């Protein structure tokens, strides 16, 4: 996949997350070389320039002599590789590397072409640094995580190769690559930036887009199981309000129900004037989710294509300008938005599950079992869904409103983007299981309406589920059923069966 720095679209970042290998557009290489040459010319002038011939952070006033410049860059990598916790998932780490590659290739960081080439080669050969997930506050760059990435490039630490952890130096040697020898500015350029936070946030928004679509399908299943109305999805209602996401969501829900024999069976004699909000307000809630995710995606794609290094090198004037592009506030805000969206997808789905298991609301057998009392049916799966929803509510508190001073108060306001983005993967996994439970419950509810069937797309989804999980006649071990349904929620097969649904970007 060709990576054009500064102009990489949403779909390409998603493809990299899913396993595509990026290669740089050759047109960017002259700018990389000129940026490195500019660092050399700046050094010749002998002026103190932050991060090139000075210390870092609070030690920026300490001048470093020419003979120590290489040691300075190596030392910053080793000293800053202080992360803790479980390693980044490999797909997210690959995405972080690709984000750093695209940023360096903009030609504003002063790194040598060979440095960019090594990062590109590691991605191509599947050499993924082991990066502890905790240690960044999302300002002055994601220093600790990116230091672990860079340490692997100089042969220190470990890499994941074909699923196994290997000493970094051996991994490089086995791949025919030499450890990087850092030149002036290069250690700082590799450490400084928002790529750790941005990678996690992007990974989460890719998952959230999938979950939004899956929730439309499970929501329609629940609507059909409860013999709910499609009138609230009428296009005319939503055009009057005007929100794009709401309009598109309503159209998608109505389309999913089109041709349903279950819906047709109660269209003329429906005594229920209005459905509960969890059915009736799906366009309003899920449409707002879609709009929010689109806004977050726009922020993250801008960030992914930008340069968040410091100082920045302007080769046309041989200047190194110190600023604050490393501050990850935009990513932190986007991560908080994604957290809200994930929380609401799961929350609305759980309310539909609760509605289905309550015979007073659904008109179905209690807890969706043919023999209530002898069997508990979906009693405890609903409790599990409720537990996951509450866990996500606790995690959805905005991370961006927190700050803690670091580096002897030199870095006195931080974004907490790393924490805000890292939590999202687990929140998405919770939503996977909430929707899995709704998929099972909705299909079970529709089974009670046999021989009536839903629409073609909904029946295609039910067929996929029933090929793995039969109807629940008598109580059985539920965990395997939930896991099977969760695998289906995570698969492309479910969305392919449902047909075209709204998304974030082409």
From TrEMBL:
<keyword id="KW-0456">Lyase</keyword>
<keyword id="KW-0963">Cytoplasm</keyword>
<feature type="cross-link" description="5-imidazolinone (Ala-Gly)">
    <location>
        <begin position="139"/>
        <end position="141"/>
    </location>
</feature>
<dbReference type="InterPro" id="IPR024083">
    <property type="entry name" value="Fumarase/histidase_N"/>
</dbReference>
<dbReference type="InterPro" id="IPR001106">
    <property type="entry name" value="Aromatic_Lyase"/>
</dbReference>
<protein>
    <recommendedName>
        <fullName>Histidine ammonia-lyase</fullName>
        <ecNumber>4.3.1.3</ecNumber>
    </recommendedName>
</protein>
<dbReference type="InterPro" id="IPR005921">
    <property type="entry name" value="HutH"/>
</dbReference>
<dbReference type="InterPro" id="IPR022313">
    <property type="entry name" value="Phe/His_NH3-lyase_AS"/>
</dbReference>
<dbReference type="Pfam" id="PF00221">
    <property type="entry name" value="Lyase_aromatic"/>
</dbReference>
<comment type="pathway">
    <text>Amino-acid degradation; L-histidine degradation into L-glutamate; N-formimidoyl-L-glutamate from L-histidine: step 1/3.</text>
</comment>
<dbReference type="InterPro" id="IPR008948">
    <property type="entry name" value="L-Aspartase-like"/>
</dbReference>
<keyword id="KW-0369">Histidine metabolism</keyword>
<dbReference type="GO" id="GO:0004397">
    <property type="term" value="F:histidine ammonia-lyase activity"/>
</dbReference>
<feature type="modified residue" description="2,3-didehydroalanine (Ser)">
    <location>
        <position position="140"/>
    </location>
</feature>
<comment type="similarity">
    <text>Belongs to the PAL/histidase family.</text>
</comment>
